[in-house]
Design brief:
By secondary structure, the chain is an alpha/beta fold. It is built from 12 helices and 8 strands. Bound molecules: phosphoenolpyruvate (PEP). Phosphoenolpyruvate binds next to strand 8.
Amino acid sequence: MRKPFICGNWKMYKTVAEAVAFINEAKGLVAGTGDVEVGIGAPATALKSLADAAKGTNIRIGGENCHWEKEGAFTGEISPGMLVEAGCSFVIIGHSERRQYFGETNETASKKIKAALASGLDVILCCGETLAEREAGKTAAVVDDHVRNGLAGLDVRQLQKIVIAYEPVWAIGTGKTATPAQAQEAHAGIRKLLADLFGKNAADSIRIQYGGSVKPENVKEIMAQPDVDGALVGGASLKPDSFAKLVHYGK
Ligand code: PEP
């Protein structure tokens, strides 16, 4: 049985003070979701304060990116160990905004994933096609490429620490959500690929989140799809009441 994982991705939003205020308001609202895992990916500056504020709650805190080296002359970068020290238990890797604006590739994503796992972090690996790729009929090939190469070299034991987030780029921050059927089709394709790469048991236990304009109004129908095991949510995760509605989608 896969435990649903609803995770916010705050991107470059919220100061430290705003982040802590969010947790103080949200912690009561998101309590009691024993059957749903709850997380927030946040800007690096806020992680330590956020993790401290979230202690004793059911909210996991994660980074939105990391470097693959433990330390070194990499100005502006943050290592997986630094995320752990700040109180993170997971990191988002390969988000389409990292791929589009910051040169993330499958190769760098793969290196980051291995380093993150070695530091004890869980990983959310993002994949998904652009609108042009979808219109050219390349959705399955693009998603296959992101997942296959992002996970290259991992074994079944390491896979247990991975969550895949299918995020069609055309649906991120646009208000255009994939239909539940489109999400299910992509998720089923990812699970089939995982079965080919890691075996059916591993594929059946890995969680696949959907991301792209998920909000309280559409989360229930997306989550009702058999291969959708959670959501990675940007805009609608920024307000405590909206985030709480997402994590309580089943009620
Ligand atoms: C995201 O940032 O991963 C995302 C899905 O954003 P939004 O929910 O705003 O589309």
